[in-house]
Write a structure and sequence with these properties.
Layout (H helix, E strand, L loop, with lengths): L4 H6 L2 H55 L4 H43 L20
């Protein structure tokens, strides 16, 4: 591995590796939480759609069609509408999960931006002499 001179000079390779792994673990854990939440929401929405349209709604539509109050076309429209609503809710859940992930990333970005300098800053730096050539 071709490390930078400073990393070799100060022997901070282990420190940087540990720091990177720690930050990576935190980011991965946040992503896992988001993905678990998305799986639960998607599964719940799928189950809800199956129960409403497949179980109750479709049964109601078939009984109503048998009684003559609904046509086959009405049942088809009802089924398509149920699938469309489920798709929209699944998309919404995906967007919420994506927004949560973006907020986690922004929180990390804000922490990096707000961090103090690693090296001390001289209170009154000495002025450099003017360049004489080139």
């Amino acid at each position: 591995m071709n490390a930078a001179k400073e990393v070799r000079l100060f022997g901070i390779g282990g420190f940087l590796r540990t720091r990177m792994r720690t930050e990576r673990r935190k980011a991965n854990e946040g992503k896992r939480v988001t993905e678990r939440t998305e799986v639960v929401v998607q599964g719940g929405l799928g189950l809800l759609t199956a129960l409403v349209s497949g179980g109750g709604g479709l049964l109601w539509a078939v009984i109503a069609a048998r009684a003559g109050t609904l046509s086959v076309g009405d049942i088809a429209v009802f089924t398509a509408a149920a699938v469309g609503v489920q798709g929209a809710l699944a998309s919404l859940a995906g967007e919420v999960a994506g927004t949560h992930q973006a907020l986690l990333t922004f929180e990390h970005y804000a922490a990096v931006i707000a961090a103090a300098p690693d090296l001390p800053v001289v209170a009154a730096p000495h002025a450099l002499p003017a360049l004489r050539d080139d």
